[in-house]
């Protein structure tokens, strides 16, 4: 079992490079940063976590910039988007950001992706909420072509380009692991078609052992090696017995949140998680 740390890296919290140093020094395997480009002031879309949206949602750094800062001050720490809202991003630009970060970190990047919950936010980027999964699918498939081919092209309904030259290519082959966030009725369809792993939110996803077993069974039926699909429990409760249960169920990673706060608040929280990890 591996253990990671997640934080909304904001302009008022501990710097992401400082956080990365402290996370690596304590023996954690990975650092996960989520993203929101903005939050529409209308606040029409309800937040799945409750009635009041925490302010860190509209104070986040760009995750690729923040993870690049983290990469420069660490040597072994895996660097992950948790999650990247690909439905709000241009796939050609994002493919370059992913590859650049993977190269500059010497192959330490993990590409966590998800569809998102804020309809107005993605509509500001030109994506219709009801079509977001179709948009995501084409963007992922197009990015895979860019990473794999010297002259990549893709022709779909939402992504369409003739042959292009785009470098660098990722260090990890054929590309950094792509992990799908969420726990909806069709999540496993997306995991099995174009992803390498699943990232459920631990505190919002009941019956995880049964769901992991279902994912393994479906992977085998689809002709994929069930053990090649990783499971990372994101936002998990910091409990050693739970971590042991998830490991027995087939999960490979537990990811614990620290608050978007200063060093004096974050570092003691990390130390508490070290005890769980041990």
Task: Give a short synopsis of this structure.
With 278 residues, the chain is α/β, with parallel strands linked by helices. The protein is 37% helix and 17% strand.
Could you characterize the architecture of this molecule?
The protein has 278 residues and is of the alpha/beta class. It has one domain (2-277): Luciferase-like domain (TIM Barrel). The chain has 9 helices and 10 strands. The protein has helices spanning 16-25, 63-72, 91-104, 119-124, 132-148, 187-194, 208-221, 240-249, 263-277, and strands at residues 2-6, 30-33, 78-84, 109-113, 152-155, 160-164, 178-181, 197-199, 230-234, 253-257. The chain has an 8-stranded parallel beta barrel with strand order 1-2-3-4-7-8-9-10, surrounded by 6 helices. Strands 5-6 form a two-stranded antiparallel ribbon. Helix 6 links the parallel strand 7 and strand 8. Helix 2 (63-72) runs parallel beside helix 3. It starts with a strand and ends with a helix. The mean pLDDT is 97.
């Amino acid at each position: 079992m591996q253990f990671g740390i997640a934080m909304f890296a904001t302009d008022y919290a501990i710097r992401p490079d400082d956080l990365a140093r402290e996370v690596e020094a304590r023996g954690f395997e990975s650092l996960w940063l989520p993203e929101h480009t903005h939050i529409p002031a209308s606040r029409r879309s309800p937040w799945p976590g409750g009635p009041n949206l925490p302010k860190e949602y509209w104070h986040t750094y760009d995750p690729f910039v923040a993870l690049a800062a983290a990469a420069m001050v660490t040597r072994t720490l895996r660097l992950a988007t948790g999650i990247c809202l690909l439905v709000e991003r241009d796939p050609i630009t994002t493919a370059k950001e992913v590859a650049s970060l993977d190269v500059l970190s010497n192959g330490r990047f993990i590409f966590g992706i998800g569809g998102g919950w804020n309809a107005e936010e993605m509509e500001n980027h030109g994506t219709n909420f009801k079509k977001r999964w179709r948009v995501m699918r084409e963007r992922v498939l197009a990015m895979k072509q860019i990473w794999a081919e010297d002259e990549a092209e893709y022709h779909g309904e939402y992504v369409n380009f003739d042959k292009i030259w785009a470098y660098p290519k990722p260090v990890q082959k054929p590309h950094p692991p792509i992990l799908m966030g969420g726990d909806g009725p069709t999540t496993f369809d997306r995991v099995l078609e174009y992803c390498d792993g699943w990232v459920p939110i631990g505190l919002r996803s009941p019956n995880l052992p049964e769901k992991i077993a279902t994912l393994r069974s479906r992977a085998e039926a689809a002709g994929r090696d069930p053990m090649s699909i990783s499971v990372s429990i994101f936002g998990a409760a910091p409990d050693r017995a739970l971590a042991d249960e998830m490991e027995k169920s087939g999960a490979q990673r537990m990811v614990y949140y620290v608050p978007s706060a200063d060093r004096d608040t974050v570092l003691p929280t990390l130390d508490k998680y070290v005890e769980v990890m041990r």
